[in-house]
Design brief:
The protein has 470 residues and is of the alpha+beta class. 33% of the residues lie in helices and 17% in strands. It folds into four domains: 114 residues, Phosphoenolpyruvate-binding domains (TIM Barrel, Alpha-Beta Barrel); 57 residues, no CATH class; 98 residues, 2-Layer Sandwich (Alpha-Beta Plaits); 95 residues, Alpha-Beta Plaits, CATH 3.30.70. The chain is built from 16 helices and 13 strands. The strands form three sheets. Strands 4, 5, 6, 7, 8, 11, 12 and 13 form an eight-stranded mixed beta sheet that branches. The N terminus is likely disordered.
């Protein structure tokens, strides 16, 4: 039964899966309960509560007067009026970043958003205000911040883009030790002041930038120079360049779009290895590497529709950073059929080091992601840390709890149902078979840490390879 039939709400993952399968996705704006109910009943997939409600509903000339309370009120109404559609809500202009915004003000705004949107079907995602505060400082900073970075490094700051590794107090101490006031970077810069990036020449004159700043404060637009004539920005060098909109080449005619359901896509499931230096790529970096490789391969790719077409690829799961694998899978859609051996050969010539396609299999239709029942891993350690007694104690235990640590919570999880088998070959090598489930899964390294009481350094030294998925 589909989500539409069950009445359960679509999620971002559902929309991504629809896009990977080449399905058409209907998106419309809604600002109130009645409109949302009508559009939801007609099968619209995404309802957008845009700040255009300032013009359409509230009667403003622009969207600038729209407030956070306005957006929260209308978003809640749309959620109450819909049952299936994914609801996406804009944030109004100026509510997230202002030069004068202090850290405490950002935190207060975040709590205000969360309190305004308390609803079982509303999920609020946000960036850490403390991290955004630091990012704002570095976006405006100068060479004095080099001293701050070194002071923070000496205080143990590492991987601070990840919230679980971010230590605000250490950064505050670093600013104080370096004699740098972080608040000076949040204040608006006076007209004519020297900027840290002044030595970089973008080709646009400082006078034009200043005039644009004044226009922005006044709410005035700068016309397009291709249509309204030269605006004297300086990028053309004053050489009398005549800019005009490019037209289609002679003899070119736009291709008529295929009717819905008639675009033919040939789907293939690829099994590939991720080894050596490739194991350090995050899932997002892996996706980008595949997109670039697919374009380099010259394959007849099938692309998604819309303003930003991408190759039709469906990735299956995310491998933890640092773990190698011989059995990762994905599905790729082609615009014409191709022999499986040729597909493997052409992809392997284009893939970066560490990636290798092992097998390609033609699919009749895009299938659901494989649901693995068993995952087999081989693990090696440079130190003799795998005690057979600890493995035997774990296998005979009826229950074996460990702490599952995540950025926003810690809780006890029973590891025993997750492990089907554990074979210690010697003190430096073992094989472990996991039984994945819908929730409360742990990484292999987390499970081995708990069973063999490994230290952080010993966990980092583990060489983990996923060898089989069944």
């Amino acid at each position: 039964m589909s989500k539409s039939q069950k009445g359960t709400r679509l999620t971002v993952r559902d929309i991504q899966a629809m896009r990977s399968r080449g399905e058409r996705i209907a998106v419309l704006t809604a600002y109130d309960f009645v409109t949302a109910a009508l559009l939801d009943a007609s099968g619209v997939d995404i309802l957008l509560v845009g700040d255009s409600l300032g013009n359409v509903v509230l009667g403003y000339d622009t969207t600038l007067p729209v407030t956070l309370d306005d957006m929260a009120r209308h978003a809640a109404a749309v959620v109450r009026g819909s049952q299936r559609a994914l609801v996406v809500c804009d944030l109004p202009f100026g509510c997230t970043t202002t030069e004068q915004a202090a850290l405490e003000a950002s935190q207060a705004r975040l709590h205000r958003v969360k309190d305004s949107l308390k609803h079982p079907d509303i999920q609020v995602k946000w960036n850490s205000p403390a991290q955004s505060w630091l990012e704002g400082i570095f976006s405006q900073g100068d060479r004095r911040l080099a001293r701050v970075i070194m002071a923070a490094h000496h205080r143990g700051c590492r991987l601070d883009a990840w919230s679980e590794h971010f230590h605000l107090e250490a950064w505050r101490e670093a600013f104080a030790a370096a004699g740098v006031d972080p608040d000076c970077y949040r204040a608006p810069r006076p007209a004519g002041s020297l900027h840290p990036w002044e030595h970089l020449d973008s080709g646009i004159s400082p006078e034009f930038f200043q005039a644009e700043r004044e226009r922005a404060y006044e709410g005035r637009q700068t016309p397009d120079c291709r249509q309204a004539g030269c605006q004297d920005c300086g990028v053309c060098g004053g050489e009398g360049v005549d800019l005009r909109l490019a037209g289609p080449p002679a003899g070119w005619a736009p291709k008529a779009p295929a009717p819905p359901g008639e675009e033919q896509v040939w789907w293939y499931r690829l099994t590939y290895a991720k080894l050596a230096e490739a194991r350090w790529l995050s899932h997002l970096e892996l996706v980008n590497a595949w997109y670039r490789s697919l374009r380099r391969s010259g394959l007849p790719l099938a692309f998604s529709a819309g303003h930003h077409p991408l190759p039709r690829v469906a990735f299956h799961g995310a491998l933890p950073v640092g773990v190698e694998s011989l059995c990762e899978t994905l599905e790729v859609g082609l615009g014409q059929p191709l022999g499986e051996r040729e597909l493997v050969s052409r992809l392997n010539r284009a893939l970066p080091p560490g990636f290798k396609v092992l097998e390609a299999r033609r699919l009749i239709r895009p299938g659901k992601p494989p649901r693995w029942e068993r995952l087999l891993y081989q693990v090696a350690s440079p130190e003799p840390v795998f005690a057979p007694e600890a493995a035997a104690k774990f296998l005979t235990a009826g229950e074996f709890t460990a702490v599952r640590r995540r950025p926003k919570e810690e809780r006890q999880v029973d590891l025993r149902p997750l492990v089907a088998d554990l074979k210690v070959e010697d003190a430096r090598h073992l094989e472990i078979c996991l039984l994945p489930r819908d929730k409360d899964n742990l990484k292999v390294s987390e499970i081995l840490r708990a069973i063999f009481t490994l230290s952080d350094a010993q966990v980092l030294d583990l060489e983990i390879v996923k060898t089989k998925a069944q």
